[in-house]
Protein 1
Amino acid sequence: MTTEHATTDKPQGTATLGADTKPPLRIARLAVDAQGLALVVMASIAVIFVLDWAQGFLIPLVLGILIAYMLDPLVGWLERIRIHRVAGTSLVMLVVIGALGFGTYSLRGQMQTIIEQLPEAASQLSSGLAKLGQGQRGAMQKIQTAASELEQAASEATGIPARPNGAVRHVIVDDPAAFKTGNVLWAGSMGAMGYVVQAAMVLFLVFFLLLSGDTYKRKLVRLTGPSLSRKKITIQVLDDINRSIQRYMLMLLSTNVLVALLAWMAFRWIGLDNAGAWAVAAGLMHLVPYLGPGLVAIATGMVAWIQFDSFVMAFLVAGVWLAIAVTVGTFVTTWMTGRIARMNSAAVFISLLFWGWLWGIWGMLLSVPIIVIVKVVSEHVEPLRPVAELLGE
């Protein structure tokens, strides 16, 4: 009996699809809108140019807005206890101007002493650098002597006469723009007058912003349209933005006052001259992240070295200040900033570099408040949510 087995022939080149067979991978291609990207780049360059060109107007404007945000809760509290807004704003501004004037008058002697000590400090620093330079020149002379001896020995061995050293010629250039004391004094007085005028403009701007109250808020609500739901959403967004920015500005004020107070106590305990003036400078420079505390440490260390003529005291003053700045910055400012606006440290540092490059020292002082305001506003505006995501933790 014969059994026939049916066989099925498969054509060559056909793949059998099994259970483990994976479908072919598809490479996702990201479509790039070249025209839109070019427009974004050109608009960014134009904005940077305008920020640089109009910094004389924008810096006082931003500074006035930030100060108004800090003082607005106090004016609102006076208004809630039945004090008219005009009277409350005037009272707050008088208190602020009086506090600034009293502080400047109290520290005028220490500031004048620091200014008078600048020539002596420069002289001591130049003498120290001259000693260092003499040591380096001595080492270079030894190297040149050794090189000339090697060249002499090589010439004697080869029979080729050594090349004589050329005479050193000193070229004196007659600079027509010579130093003139009158020009320097005139430039300094004009610069001081410009700062006084800018400070007065900032104070007037703060006064009018505080006086206006929620006028611009009501105008923005009207611009949203007649829909009641959109008005409610707009009011909620504006309230959240105002609350976050006010809390952050009050946090900056409290932490820097704490830093200045601790620095004053530490400098007085060590015995550093003009401790009050250096404490005020330390509190102001603490606004500049990373760079500000380092500059204060260098300045106070140099002052301590000149005063005590001891590197130990210089390192002690600089180290105590850095300990205060790091402690307050790590355990107070970082914690409070994290609760108010969770910021990315890399974004903060990039903002510091950008605004410092654009506006100099004023840009460094205003960089953190500006980037926090940008993040808070971006969190509440739908088209700007990607910016908030980039700036957040």
Protein 2
Amino acid sequence: MALAEASVPRRQVATYAVERPERRVGRMASRLFFLVLLAGVTVVFLAPLAWLVSASLKTRSQVFNGEWVPDPVMWSNYVDVWRAAPVLSWLQNSLVVGLLGAVAVTLSSAAVAFGFAYFRFRGRDVLFGLVLATMMLPGAVTMIPVYLIWNELGLVNTLVPLWAGNLFGSVFYVFLLRQFYLGLPRDLFDAARIDGANYLQMWWRVALPLTRTALIVVFVFEFKALWTDLLKPLIYLYDTALFTMPRGIKTLIDRFGQGGEMQWELVLAATTVLTVPLIALFFFAQRYFIEGIATTGTKG
């Protein structure tokens, strides 16, 4: 230690002693700048949500007055919108569609992804490339044929077409989950085969528990997509009692957002009711969600 200190010139040691506080100040300044920037971006992203909640608590004449704090606070807007429309029924329908569709696409996509990751056969990469190529096919191309299929099955004006298509998986989720499966040690599956497990047991008992974070990411993504989807309910649903929440809000906009009876406070209150469950879902799943997003790019 003494030899090492002796080999360093005194002038250079003094320079290092002066530079250390400067580096510390520089790191603190850069960190402070990053925190301020992050706070600013957060405010920008939260501003629309804050305006939505604020406007939903205003009187009819104050909705677009530009003020952030409602005066007076009209909690009765939420009571009025529940009286004006079957909001509870719409929420139940959205919940059924979201849960069934998210579970269906998670399990089906996981099964397909496991097949592409585990089995080794000639032409596997070519076949997987063809599967990925279907992502380039616009949904509008298959919209009419798919509608005709559900119509022939007698399932139009039911909730089935809104979620049952997810039983066949999703290309994006297949790709996402395959990346996770490729990162699993193959020795785990070889050991399971030696213990007598079949392919289905290997997938269910070994692969799925080890990719829990990825499955939660897929579930959250799909639940959000189904919860906010308006196009399919517009196409397949005619009965008001079967409407999902986005379809119901479209009805409220047609009723209260134009013409002589403009009551935007009711529309915004219903929109807030639609938004709150998604915030709660992300709040409870954020640890797994962030972990899954962060590790997706490191697999494979």
